[in-house]
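call fold(seq) -> C-alpha coordinates
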Amino acid sequence: MELFKSLIVILLSSVLVNNYVLSRFLGICPFLGVSKKLDQATGMGIAVTAVMLLATAVTWPIQKLLLEKIGLGYMQTIVFILVIAALVQMLELLLKKTSPSLHKGLGVYLPLITTNCAVLGVAINNINDGYDFLQSMVSALGVGLGFLLAMVLFSGLRARIDETNIPKPFRGLAITLIAASFISLAFMGFAGIVDTLFA
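ret:
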Protein backbone atom coordinates (compact mmCIF):
# COMPACT_ATOMS: atom_id res chain seq x y z
CA MET A 1 0.00 0.00 0.00
CA GLU A 2 2.85 2.38 0.87
CA LEU A 3 4.51 1.73 -2.51
CA PHE A 4 1.24 2.45 -4.35
CA LYS A 5 0.77 5.67 -2.36
CA SER A 6 4.30 6.86 -3.16
CA LEU A 7 3.81 6.10 -6.87
CA ILE A 8 0.53 8.04 -6.93
CA VAL A 9 2.24 10.99 -5.21
CA ILE A 10 5.06 10.92 -7.79
CA LEU A 11 2.55 10.71 -10.66
CA LEU A 12 0.29 13.54 -9.46
CA SER A 13 3.26 15.71 -8.52
CA SER A 14 4.77 15.27 -11.97
CA VAL A 15 1.51 16.06 -13.79
CA LEU A 16 0.17 18.95 -11.74
CA VAL A 17 2.51 20.40 -9.14
CA ASN A 18 5.91 20.09 -10.84
CA ASN A 19 4.68 20.34 -14.42
CA TYR A 20 7.87 20.62 -16.46
CA VAL A 21 6.41 23.14 -18.90
CA LEU A 22 4.36 25.32 -16.57
CA SER A 23 6.40 25.32 -13.37
CA ARG A 24 9.93 24.32 -14.41
CA PHE A 25 9.77 25.96 -17.85
CA LEU A 26 11.38 23.03 -19.67
CA GLY A 27 10.19 22.11 -23.16
CA ILE A 28 8.94 25.60 -24.02
CA CYS A 29 9.93 25.40 -27.72
CA PRO A 30 7.39 22.71 -28.72
CA PHE A 31 4.90 24.14 -26.20
CA LEU A 32 4.83 27.46 -28.04
CA GLY A 33 5.49 26.12 -31.54
CA VAL A 34 3.14 23.15 -31.92
CA SER A 35 0.18 24.27 -29.81
CA LYS A 36 -1.71 26.11 -32.56
CA LYS A 37 -3.82 23.09 -33.55
CA LEU A 38 -5.26 20.51 -31.17
CA ASP A 39 -4.32 17.46 -33.27
CA GLN A 40 -0.70 18.58 -33.61
CA ALA A 41 -0.49 19.48 -29.91
CA THR A 42 -1.90 16.09 -28.94
CA GLY A 43 0.44 14.29 -31.32
CA MET A 44 3.45 16.16 -29.98
CA GLY A 45 2.40 15.48 -26.39
CA ILE A 46 2.02 11.77 -27.07
CA ALA A 47 5.33 11.64 -28.95
CA VAL A 48 7.16 13.44 -26.11
CA THR A 49 5.54 11.14 -23.53
CA ALA A 50 6.65 8.08 -25.52
CA VAL A 51 10.20 9.42 -25.83
CA MET A 52 10.31 10.26 -22.10
CA LEU A 53 9.22 6.74 -21.18
CA LEU A 54 11.66 5.14 -23.62
CA ALA A 55 14.50 7.45 -22.58
CA THR A 56 13.93 6.70 -18.90
CA ALA A 57 13.69 2.96 -19.54
CA VAL A 58 17.06 3.07 -21.33
CA THR A 59 18.99 5.77 -19.46
CA TRP A 60 18.26 4.60 -15.89
CA PRO A 61 19.89 1.18 -16.41
CA ILE A 62 22.75 2.75 -18.37
CA GLN A 63 23.44 5.12 -15.47
CA LYS A 64 23.06 2.57 -12.67
CA LEU A 65 24.47 -0.55 -14.33
CA LEU A 66 27.15 0.92 -16.58
CA LEU A 67 28.25 4.50 -15.93
CA GLU A 68 28.28 4.30 -12.12
CA LYS A 69 29.87 0.83 -12.12
CA ILE A 70 32.84 1.88 -14.22
CA GLY A 71 33.22 5.34 -12.67
CA LEU A 72 31.95 7.36 -15.65
CA GLY A 73 28.99 9.04 -13.97
CA TYR A 74 30.29 12.40 -15.18
CA MET A 75 29.49 11.28 -18.77
CA GLN A 76 25.78 11.15 -17.93
CA THR A 77 24.66 14.18 -19.94
CA ILE A 78 26.54 13.24 -23.11
CA VAL A 79 25.40 9.61 -23.00
CA PHE A 80 21.79 10.58 -22.28
CA ILE A 81 21.74 13.06 -25.19
CA LEU A 82 23.03 10.37 -27.56
CA VAL A 83 20.46 7.84 -26.33
CA ILE A 84 17.61 10.34 -26.65
CA ALA A 85 18.74 11.34 -30.15
CA ALA A 86 18.73 7.69 -31.24
CA LEU A 87 15.28 7.11 -29.72
CA VAL A 88 13.83 10.17 -31.47
CA GLN A 89 15.24 9.03 -34.80
CA MET A 90 13.59 5.63 -34.33
CA LEU A 91 10.29 7.30 -33.37
CA GLU A 92 10.49 9.59 -36.41
CA LEU A 93 10.99 6.62 -38.74
CA LEU A 94 8.09 4.80 -37.07
CA LEU A 95 5.76 7.80 -37.43
CA LYS A 96 6.80 8.31 -41.04
CA LYS A 97 5.77 4.73 -41.84
CA THR A 98 2.64 4.45 -39.68
CA SER A 99 1.20 7.99 -39.59
CA PRO A 100 2.47 10.21 -42.42
CA SER A 101 -0.07 12.95 -41.65
CA LEU A 102 1.06 13.25 -38.03
CA HIS A 103 4.70 13.11 -39.17
CA LYS A 104 4.04 15.95 -41.62
CA GLY A 105 2.02 17.92 -39.05
CA LEU A 106 4.80 17.77 -36.47
CA GLY A 107 7.30 18.84 -39.12
CA VAL A 108 10.51 20.27 -37.76
CA TYR A 109 9.34 19.91 -34.16
CA LEU A 110 9.68 16.13 -34.17
CA PRO A 111 13.48 16.22 -34.54
CA LEU A 112 13.46 18.99 -31.92
CA ILE A 113 12.37 16.41 -29.34
CA THR A 114 16.03 15.40 -29.44
CA THR A 115 16.98 18.76 -28.00
CA ASN A 116 13.88 19.11 -25.80
CA CYS A 117 15.32 19.85 -22.39
CA ALA A 118 12.25 18.32 -20.72
CA VAL A 119 13.17 14.87 -22.07
CA LEU A 120 16.76 15.19 -20.88
CA GLY A 121 15.58 16.83 -17.67
CA VAL A 122 13.30 13.97 -16.66
CA ALA A 123 16.04 11.40 -17.30
CA ILE A 124 18.59 13.32 -15.22
CA ASN A 125 16.15 14.39 -12.47
CA ASN A 126 14.98 10.81 -11.92
CA ILE A 127 18.58 9.82 -11.22
CA ASN A 128 19.26 12.90 -9.07
CA ASP A 129 16.05 12.38 -7.06
CA GLY A 130 17.22 8.86 -6.17
CA TYR A 131 14.26 7.13 -7.77
CA ASP A 132 14.43 3.40 -8.43
CA PHE A 133 13.46 2.07 -11.86
CA LEU A 134 9.70 1.83 -11.18
CA GLN A 135 9.56 5.28 -9.60
CA SER A 136 11.53 6.69 -12.54
CA MET A 137 9.08 5.21 -15.03
CA VAL A 138 6.09 6.58 -13.10
CA SER A 139 7.78 9.98 -12.91
CA ALA A 140 8.48 9.93 -16.67
CA LEU A 141 4.85 8.99 -17.34
CA GLY A 142 3.65 11.82 -15.09
CA VAL A 143 5.95 14.37 -16.72
CA GLY A 144 4.82 13.22 -20.17
CA LEU A 145 1.14 13.42 -19.20
CA GLY A 146 1.77 16.84 -17.69
CA PHE A 147 3.39 17.95 -20.94
CA LEU A 148 0.42 16.56 -22.91
CA LEU A 149 -2.05 18.29 -20.58
CA ALA A 150 -0.24 21.61 -20.94
CA MET A 151 -0.14 21.25 -24.73
CA VAL A 152 -3.86 20.43 -25.01
CA LEU A 153 -4.94 23.22 -22.61
CA PHE A 154 -2.76 25.76 -24.36
CA SER A 155 -4.00 24.62 -27.77
CA GLY A 156 -7.59 25.23 -26.68
CA LEU A 157 -6.68 28.63 -25.30
CA ARG A 158 -4.87 29.61 -28.50
CA ALA A 159 -7.92 28.58 -30.55
CA ARG A 160 -10.04 30.95 -28.44
CA ILE A 161 -7.43 33.71 -28.83
CA ASP A 162 -7.55 33.34 -32.61
CA GLU A 163 -11.32 33.99 -32.51
CA THR A 164 -10.91 37.13 -30.39
CA ASN A 165 -10.17 40.67 -31.46
CA ILE A 166 -6.85 41.27 -29.71
CA PRO A 167 -5.51 44.85 -29.42
CA LYS A 168 -2.75 45.43 -31.97
CA PRO A 169 0.18 45.73 -29.52
CA PHE A 170 -0.68 42.33 -28.01
CA ARG A 171 -1.07 40.33 -31.24
CA GLY A 172 1.26 37.47 -32.08
CA LEU A 173 3.89 36.33 -29.63
CA ALA A 174 2.91 38.83 -26.93
CA ILE A 175 -0.58 37.42 -26.35
CA THR A 176 0.80 33.88 -26.64
CA LEU A 177 3.27 34.47 -23.82
CA ILE A 178 0.64 36.26 -21.71
CA ALA A 179 -1.74 33.32 -22.16
CA ALA A 180 1.03 30.86 -21.25
CA SER A 181 1.75 32.82 -18.09
CA PHE A 182 -1.94 32.67 -17.09
CA ILE A 183 -1.97 28.89 -17.47
CA SER A 184 1.24 28.70 -15.45
CA LEU A 185 -0.34 30.81 -12.70
CA ALA A 186 -3.39 28.54 -12.70
CA PHE A 187 -1.16 25.49 -12.20
CA MET A 188 0.50 27.17 -9.22
CA GLY A 189 -2.82 26.58 -7.48
CA PHE A 190 -2.02 22.86 -7.37
CA ALA A 191 0.95 23.44 -5.04
CA GLY A 192 0.33 21.54 -1.83
CA ILE A 193 -2.63 19.57 -3.15
CA VAL A 194 -0.70 16.29 -3.24
CA ASP A 195 0.46 16.71 0.35
CA THR A 196 -3.09 17.54 1.44
CA LEU A 197 -4.59 14.51 -0.30
CA PHE A 198 -2.08 12.04 1.11
CA ALA A 199 -1.33 13.58 4.52
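The chain has nine helices and no strands.
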